[in-house]
Amino acid sequence: MPIELSHDLKVKHSRDAQSRQDFISSLRGFILNDMAAGMRARFDDEVEPAFERQHGRAPKTQDEVHAAMRRDPYFKFYSSVRYNAQEMVWRSVIPGVQADLPELSSKVDQLSQTGGGSLTLDSSLAVPENVAGLDVHLMPGGYANVGHPGAGAVYDNGLAVFSAGFMGPDLNDIGLSMSNYVKHRFPDFTPERILDCGCTVGHNAAAWAQTYPDAEVHGVDVSASVLIYAHGRAQSLGLPVHYHQMDATDLTFPDNSFDVVFTSMFLHELSVKDIKRFFAQAHRVLRPGGLLINMELPPNRELKPYDQFYLDWDCYYNKEPYYRAFRDQNPEDLIQAGGFRSEDFIQFTVPQYSFTPVDAFNAAVNAPPSFDGDTGRLSASLSWFGFGGWKAKS
Amino acid sequence: MPDSSPNTDPLPVDAAGRRPAFFAPDGVDQILTMVLELATELWVLRERVFVIEAVAAEHGLPLKSGVESYALTDAQRAELAAMRAEMMNQLFRTLNQDHRPVGG
To answer: Which residues of A touch B43 (CB under 8 A)?
Structure first.
C-alpha cells in the first residue's frame, strides 16, 4: 500500500486515483519481492546452468549475467512489468497534483511565512545537465522543470506509491537510519550544523532535524521546484530546515562551516568526476573532526555478479545513466580523491530504523558491515549501506 | 476416510499440452503495457463497486440484488459508450503518441 503522507501539502487524490495508487504500489511490492525471487530462481535453475554448459564455468561478471538474462523470458517480463509500473507510478499521481496546483502553491506561500526554516533561491544557477537534460527515474518533466512546486509534489506523491512502504511512514527512513547510526555509533559526537546535499523534497533532511533537534539543518539542491516544495513540507512538519538552491559540486558555504555533510541516493546520479568534485567541496565545508556520510547502493565489489546485475537494472532501464559507474568504484578511493584520509574512512550496513527494535538496531550499528543480496535492495528484508569519512582534526 | 466422500481435488483449468503461438514477438512490450493498464483499471472499478455497495447498504439500499435485475436506458448506453472510448485511448496509449479520441 502507498504510505499516507502526513504533512499539509498532501494532495487530495480522487477515489479512483487512490485505488490506482493502491494497485500500483501492490504491483511494485509484487515485482520487488515475488517476481525478483522468481527471476533469481530462474537464473539459478535455468540460465546459469545453461551458461555453464556453454562456457564450462559460471558467469564471472554482471555483464555476463545481464547478457544471458536478456534472452530469458522471465527477465523480459520482470523488466517490462517493472518499467511499466515505474511509468504508472507517475501517471497515478500527476493528475491529482495538476488539479491541486493552485491550492498547493498558496499553501506553500502561507507555510513559508511561518516556522524557523528558510528558502534561498538562486535564479542564476545553471542547472546541470544530469538534472536538466534527463527525466531521472522516468519522472515526466524531470526534477527541475518548473518554477512552482509541481515537480516536488509529483516526486513526493510518486515516492509514496513507488516505495510501497519500504521507505518508512514519512518517506524518511533513510534519513532516520543514517542519523541514528551516527547518534548510536558515535554518542559523543554532537553536530551543530548539518548539510544534506541533493536533498530534493527534504524528506531526509527533516529526519536529521528530528534526530538532532538542537542542530541547524541545511539542504541544497539545484532544482528550485523541489526546494520550494521542500521548504513548505518541512514548515508543515514543524521542522526548521534551511534550503538553498546550490550545486553540491560548487558549494558557496564558507570553509569549516558544517559538522555533518550528508547525502542519500545522490552520488549514483552524478558522474564520477562530479562525485570527486562534490567530495572535495564536502571536505572543504566540513569542520576538522566533521563527518561526511553517504547513504548509497552498495559497491559492486562487495556483491556477487547476479546481485550486481540485479541492482544495476536501474542504470539501464530507469534513466539513471551514472548508476553503474558509481557502483563500480571503490568508496574508499572516492573519498580520498576529495581529500579525506584512508584511515578516516567508514562504511556500515544498518537495518531500517523505522521497522527495527532499538536493541537490534544498536547491535547492527556496532557490528562490521555485512553485504548480501538484500543490501540496498528494496525488499521486505532490506538493509541500508552507508559510507564516508571524518575530516582530520589537524 | 470412507469411499463415499466426494473428491475435492482442484479441477484443472488449463488444457494439457503446449499452447500455440500465433504472433511473432513484435509488440509484446506494448501488450504488456495494455495488460497492466487494464488490470489497474479493473482494480479501480472493483474497489469502487465495493465502496458503492457498502455505502448503499449503510443507507438501506440492497444494491447487490438491485443491480442484477436492472435494465439500461438508451441514454445510459450512450454515456457508457463514451466512457468506453476514453478507456480505449488510455489502454492503447503506447501505439500512437498523438492519437485522437476513438470516434473523434
So the answer is: 19-20, 22-23
